[in-house]
Amino acid sequence: MLYGLSLLAGIALLTLGGEGLIRGAVAGAKRLGVSPLFTGLVIVGFGTSSPELVVSIHAAMNQQPDIAIGNVVGSNIGNILLILGLCALICPLTAQPQALKRDGLVMMLAAVLFIVLAFNGSLGRFDAALLLISLAAYLIWAYRSESGQHSPSAELHTAEADEVTKLPSSTLFIIVVLIGGLALLIGGSQLLLYGAIGIAQALGISEAVIGLTIVAVGTSLPELAVSVIAALRRHADVAVGNILGSNIFNILGILGVSAFLQPLALVERMAAFDQWVMLGASALLIAFLYTGLRLSRGEGSLLLLGYIAYLTASFTVIG
After folding, report:
1. What's the pLDDT tens digit per position in 7-60?
2. Its pTM surpasses 0.70
3. Which segments cross the bilayer (predicted)?
4. Tens of pLDDT along 296-319?
5. 145-162 pLDDT, tens per residue?
């Protein structure tokens, strides 16, 4: 009971902290005159991954590589199969061709890069440096390709910034929200990991399975919130763009920072199963989107069924 309450409390704090951090950062960026394009591309697109970042860093520093890596791999799987599957049922999702060609390609390349670097069973500091350099290169490419010109992709990232509820422009208020959001993220990550590890030990489930499923879904709630709100508002391309950007940052940014702070070992089941599910889900999403630049309700249903099958395999056959 205690572990379950700790897990739920951790998820709630991470969600609130992530929301506060994003909204505070967006308000601060507006006050500093940062362009809506950069705000949507970096702050919103990557800010929704802040719970994953804090949890994976915390797990890495506490010698829990199964959760640190599993959180990222599981989040990327859940983002595609669960979140986009749900959003497609609400409203068929469309994708901007330019954003799909660039961000979809980078998402696939990031997944392949992770598999290649982890082939020897671990991610070291050199691997982390390559991931972070790749992230920097992507951001430069994305910003240069969109700034100073009219492009649907630029409009997409600007619209992502508009999806976030604005805060009062008072500097003191913004600072309080940012510090409060960060504090909630740190506290939530501690509660989440305490509850998740306790449940794993009590039920005899591996930390890898817990990280890939419960922890991953819990830290993905900000992506779920942004994407579902966008789908309900019929801003379907924002939902897709948010997930593509989040998945890129999860691999290149979160694993890059986590492995740089503490080299991470890859558990055997992730090497044999989960990383390939992540790559397959990414490829399936790109294939669906390229056929008509949309994700239909039928395709969304297939994604959801795929996630149910993945969970079933994780807790029975594989786990």
Report:
1. 888 888 887 877 777 777 777 767 776 666 566 666 666 677 788 888 899 889
2. yes
3. 77-95, 104-120, 172-197, 209-232, 244-264, 276-293, 300-318
4. 899 999 999 999 999 999 888 665
5. 766 555 555 555 555 555
Q: What is the 3-state secondary structure (H, E, C) of the chain?
A: CHHHHHHHHHHHHHHHHHHHHHHHHHHHHHHCCCCHHHHHHHHHHHHCCHHHHHHHHHHHHCCCHHHHHHHHHHHHHHHHHHHHHHHHHHCCEECCHHHHHHHHHHHHHHHHHHHHHHHHCEECHHHHHHHHHHHHHHHHHHHHHHCCCCCHHHHHHHHHHHHCCCCCCCHHHHHHHHHHHHHHHHHHHHHHHHHHHHHHHHHCCCHHHHHHHHHHHHHCHHHHHHHHHHHHCCCHHHHHHHHHHHHHHHHHHHHHHHHHHCCEECCHHHHHHHHHHHHHHHHHHHHHHHCCCEECHHHHHHHHHHHHHHHHHHHHHHC
39 CB neighbour count, 10 Å cutoff:
24
- Higher-confidence residue of 249 and 29: namely 249
